[in-house]
Amino acid sequence: MADNLQEQLYQRLREALLAGQFQPGERLKIRDLAAAWGTSPMPVRAALQRLVAEGALEGEPQRSVRVPAMTGERFEQLLQVRLSLEGLAVESATPRLAAADLAILEGCVERMERALEARDVQAYLDDNSRFHLTLYQACANPVLLRLIESLWLQVGPFFNRLFTEADLSLRLNDFHDDTLTALRAGDAKAARAAMEQDLTYFGRYLLNLLGLEARPG
């Protein structure tokens, strides 16, 4: 039972990190999380320690844990690796997508568009992560998927910077549309190119928030 509870808490924390629900540099307090989830501190601590071991969180003195701060250099390094791995995942996933998968992706794109128009921060983040990770899961390569998810755990919290320090750009959904068009056509190369454009645009947009690049138009 304890192992099952720890796994449940671990998955909840992972999902929150992937969706950008924590801020870079934010300290996660074990007792606060345990109280919010109605459990004892022990399984929460164990779940957090797993994420520290994966590099998604950082351990601090006195057993506290925090979301790593993000720098422009670190983000650029993560982006370079993400372009290669996520591009490969899209190319591999394209011929394996079923009609049900495409329907999920279409729903994500439609909801992201509405979220951008409504300035609904968390709704956009939730469907952005759902779109990407649903697509990548179709690649049928669990090793590749684990590597991608480990990178998303590190960049997910930084996505909050987009919405706390800058206006939303309606262009943020353009490359999702392009990716979806290529996926419908079964064009794996075009789908990969569109996804790489999406990651690059999104990355440049976020780097602007660190004052390192001009915001793309």
UniProtKB/TrEMBL annotation:
Gene3D superfamilies according to UniProt: GntR ligand-binding domain-like, Winged helix-like DNA-binding domain superfamily/Winged helix DNA-binding domain
Pfam families with a match to the protein in the record: FCD, GntR
Keywords attached to this entry: DNA-binding, Transcription, Transcription regulation
SMART domains: FCD, HTH_GNTR
InterPro entries xrefs: GntR_C, TF_FadR/GntR_C, Tscrpt_reg_HTH_GntR, WH-like_DNA-bd_sf, WH_DNA-bd_sf
Domain HTH gntR-type residues, every copy: 3-70
Keyword Amino-acid biosynthesis among record annotations: no
Keyword check for Magnesium: no
Protein name: GntR family transcriptional regulator
Species of the source: Zestomonas insulae
